[in-house]
Amino acid sequence: MQPATQVNMMTDGVLSRGLFGVSTSGNFSSLCPNGSKWVWEGLGECAQDGRDMASIYLGLLSILCFMVSSLPQYYSSCKTGNMDSALSIWFLLLWLGGDGCNLVGSFLADQLPLQTYTAVYYVIADLMMLALYLYYMAKNRMRQSRMVLHVAGVACVLGFTSSLVHLPGSGAQQEVIPSEFRSRALLSTSDLSAIKAFSPKEIIGFSIGSVSSVLYLCSRLPQMYTNYKRKSTEGVSYFLFALVILGNTTYGLSVLLKNPDEGQGEKSYMIHHLPWLIGSLGTLSLDVIISFQFLIYRKAKEEVSSSHGETAPLIGS
């Protein structure tokens, strides 16, 4: 990772933006008056009021939820060993595709630093989940064909290679931004009802972010069908979806609570973040449906077990 891509420079009244978020160098008191210094230095954001701080805390909670969301599924997979039949491969692939587009789109569309940090972890967690799925698929089908093992190895290598392309050291891209105060404020002398124009870079990022939201929404459908076809959610950890629901909720609230840029109205801010809000809050509703599947199929399983327990003594006698 090259230092040039990590550290932004303040020279002659111009603030440079690095690969991830706002510069933390320069005069803090002039660039972010009344702001939180630890947020400025640690996250590269200017948080001046309670609304901004609430957005920061919710964003950090969202990252925490997504960090631990995969752990229950890892445990369930190791315990049951049927991850390849419990989870839909299209669910994992579309989820990975959505997270990949989310990462690229967040960077190109100049989204909040916390959004970009979260997107990086998404991709890493998805690759680990996919690798575990391929491992159990290869393990359970080894006797049928050894080709699966080669496919798993190739997929892991390709996934690792593609992740390297997005590492910060792959190339420094800097954007010159005027040095005037750039925090997100609700009051401004400009027309707040006008929608801020998209730059060519933001248009590309917005388009990729829109593709990401579509992939997120589509990713749940194969898993919902797999659960319906099996009439069971055995092998799938409910805590995976419960934590993802909590993560998407806090993620969406974090974006909604953040103050718009100076001179940017709420309407313009919402439009610029619309794909990420749809991808977050849209999948939230589908994950709730999957939660109902857990309840329905668990109840059906308990009724079958209860019925079997009542008839067993009669048969035995």
> Mean of residue pLDDT?
73
Q: What's the number of extended β-strand segments?
A: 3
The profile of the biggest β sheet is:
3 strands, antiparallel
Choose one word for the global shape.
elongated
Count of helix runs: 12
Order of helices and strands: HEEHHHHHHHEHHHH
Summarize, please.
The protein is mainly alpha-helical and 317 residues long. The protein has helices spanning 3-6, 28-31, 37-43, 50-80, 83-86, 89-108, 113-140, 147-165, 200-230, 238-257, 266-272, 274-316; strands at 10-11, 14-17, 175-178.
Structural features, described:
The chain has 317 residues and is mainly alpha-helical. The protein has a domain at 47-156 and 199-303. It has 12 helices and 3 strands. It has helices at 3-6, 28-31, 37-43, 50-80, 83-86, 89-108, 113-140, 147-165, 200-230, 238-257, 266-272, 274-316; strands at 10-11, 14-17, 175-178. The protein has a 3-stranded antiparallel beta sheet with strand order 1-2-3, with no helix packed on it. A hairpin with a 2-residue loop joins strand 1 and strand 2 (14-17). Helix 6 (89-108) runs antiparallel to helix 9 (200-230) and helix 7 runs antiparallel to helix 8 (147-165). The relative contact order is 0.15. The model is unreliable at 1-24 and 165-191 (pLDDT under 50).
